[in-house]
Amino acid sequence: MNTTTKGLGLLILITSTYSWAAGPCLPIAEACMKEGYYQGGEKTGKGLIKDCILPMTSKQKSIENTTFSDDVLQACQATIITKMDSMKKS
């Protein structure tokens, strides 16, 4: 499988699983998935949101050779919080 196909598959997986990830969280989610984090991985410490994206947005975690601007981190964190709040109200 070539790099373009892998990238497209990753993008489809992220956006279909987490529609909110198409926004500011997309580059963070991609970096986390490349490091082995995935949906449902909480039991093994590899949960995409809980173990990677949220800690990265609060600067408690970093991925080697990967940096994100404060604006991207804050926008992603706000997106996740808004989504989680709306899920609680449902």
What does this structure look like?
- It is a single chain.
- With 90 residues, the chain is an all-alpha fold.
- It has one domain.
- 60% of the residues lie in helices and 0% in strands.
- It is built from four helices and no strands.
Q: What structural category arises from helix and sheet content?
A: mainly alpha
Largest sheet: none
Q: Taking Cα atoms only, what radius of gyration do you get, to the nearest Å?
A: 13 Å
| Secondary structure tally: strands | 0
Overall number of structural domains: 1
Strand content: under 5%
Overall helicity: 55-70%
First-last Cα distance: 40 Å
- The rough form would be described as globular
Number of contiguous helices: 4
Explain briefly what this protein structure is.
By secondary structure, the protein is mostly helical. The chain has helices spanning 3-17, 26-34, 48-57, 70-89. α1 packs across α2, α2 crosses α3 and α3 (48-57) crosses α4.
